[in-house]
UniProtKB/TrEMBL annotation:
Coiled coil: none
Gene3D superfamilies for this protein: HUPs
UniProt-listed InterPro entries: PAPS_reduct_dom, Rossmann-like_a/b/a_fold, Sulfate_adenylyltrnsfr_sub2
Name assigned to this protein: Phosphoadenosine phosphosulfate reductase family protein
Source organism superkingdom: Bacteria
SUPFAM superfamilies: Adenine nucleotide alpha hydrolases-like
GO molecular function, one term: catalytic activity
Domain Phosphoadenosine phosphosulphate reductase: 45-126, 167-334
Species the sequence originates in: Ruminiclostridium sufflavum DSM 19573
Length: 431
């Protein structure tokens, strides 16, 4: 069994390729062996369930392999609040049928004190600097002590004015995608494209005062300075998916987690598998099990079709030419695949107009416009794109596709791109 404290790899890339070439039945037998080992080593075992094809196939295989143990297995559905309706309905229906009382759904946290919105935070910080009090709000390394520390500088009259202008998140507000997007930024490109994981106001302060700025990230920092209102972040993934699931796992006393991860999904997952294998104990002391790691998308569908395994109708949706819309499920607000054809944002624009319009009006249009301006400078684009191209799909097992029509239009004539699919230009809707 691998461990996250080990540095030597469990498998070589050649070994992974060899296993991925195995026939389906051989992969299933291997997965069943991993499932049995997981039940042997784990005490209170949970399945991370998204309603997607991979975790559904894994749940089905667990039930087939260890039916008695599966009856007591905890199933945790990570409801992000921005799921496609088809995925949400399927996950809840299957959870009720297969999981019963062991099926649990995550809930989003809520803020405990009022939080200023970004525009108000900028005004308050400008006032603090003008008064010469910046040092009172910084640690020794030039970082903001905390975002909520800014509240101390806000007078009752200022609170009243900010509330009148709808510039306050009140205590009790859910830490939803919309809250994170406003405070941190929108998920555009891959996780490694954003090198600072903090609210945008904290980043502004960091760029001006911090003594810890890495020379290797200079291009990225320069881009943020040139575009001070650019809000691109992947903090939503942590706050609406990872953290709620972790809290629920802890609350339920789980020590082992099944995950329907495929090594072929991304470069990051490839290396995770090479380093740690199918079953390992993480630094957090949890036991992680990925029985389907050597499966490909083709294998998953072959398994589903040959075993009469249910799946979300999201995967059956097609465009006007009969082409499948979705290879995988996920948050409808996610823009991580923006650089590639068939990405989530393109699908929203063409087939989910109400959701598209809501997302664009909320601020994604503004960020896409700002991103388009950054793209006009290839050096600054590289600051965002280089790590992304390495980390996200398409990865080593996929064919790199051309840039999407949206990105081509953004780069060539950003002011003419109609993000609503109507007649309103981006320059107007992003004001």
């Amino acid at each position: 069994m691998g461990s996250k404290v080990k540095k030597e790899s469990v498998f070589t890339y050649a070994q992974l390729q060899e296993m991925q070439a195995w026939p389906l039945e051989m992969k299933i037998e291997n997965a069943q062996k991993i499932i049995r080992q997981t039940f042997k080593y784990g005490k209170k075992i949970a399945l991370a369930f998204s309603g997607g094809k991979d975790s559904t196939a894994l749940w089905h295989l667990i039930r087939e392999t260890c039916p008695e143990e599966a009856k007591n297995m905890i199933v945790i559905f990570g409801n992000t609040g921005v799921e496609y309706k088809e995925s949400l309905d399927f996950a809840r229906k299957l959870g009720k049928e297969w999981g019963g009382e062991n099926f649990h759904e995550t809930k989003l946290d809520r803020i405990k004190v009022p939080r200023l919105k970004y525009e108000a935070q900028k005004m308050v910080w400008a006032m603090i600097e003008k008064q010469g009090d910046a040092h009172r709000y910084l640690n020794k390394k030039g970082r903001l002590l905390s975002t909520d520390k800014l509240n101390e500088a806000v007078t009752p009259k200022m609170w009243e004015l900010f509330r009148e202008q709808n510039l306050v998140w009140e205590a009790g507000t859910q830490i939803s995608f919309w809250f994170i997007a406003e405070q941190y930024g929108f998920p555009i490109l891959g996780k490694d494209a954003t090198k600072l994981d903090a609210p945008r106001i904290n980043i502004n302060v960091f760029l001006k005062y911090s003594t810890e700025q890495s020379e290797g990230n200079k291009e990225y920092y320069d881009m943020l300075r040139e575009f001070p209102d650019m809000r691109i972040s992947h903090s939503c993934c942590y706050f609406i998916k990872e953290q709620p699931s972790q809290k629920l796992q802890k609350k339920l006393g789980c020590d082992t987690l099944f995950r329907g991860l495929l090594a072929s999904e991304s470069r990051r997952r490839t290396f995770t598998f090479l380093d740690y294998g199918f079953l390992y104990k993480g630094a957090d002391k949890y036991l992680y099990s990925s029985p389907l790691a050597i499966f490909t998308d083709t294998d998953i569908w072959a398994y589903i079709n040959s075993r009469n395994c249910p799946y979300s109708e999201l995967y059956d949706l097609t465009d006007e030419k009969g082409n499948k819309l979705f290879e995988r499920n996920g948050c409808y607000t996610c823009g991580t695949g923006l650089a590639y054809e068939g990405n989530n944002i393109e699908i929203l624009r063409k087939h989910y107009q109400p959701k598209w319009r809501g997302l664009m009006k909320y601020g994604m249009a503004r960020e896409m416009k700002t991103f388009a301006c950054a793209m006009c400078n290839d050096v600054k684009l590289n600051a965002l794109e280089s790590d992304y191209l390495l980390d996200n799909r398409p990865c080593a097992f996929d064919r790199l596709t051309p840039k999407t029509d949206i990105l081509k239009a953004l780069r060539e004539e950003p002011e003419q791109l109609d993000l609503f699919g109507g007649s309103t230009f981006i320059s107007n809707i992003s004001k």
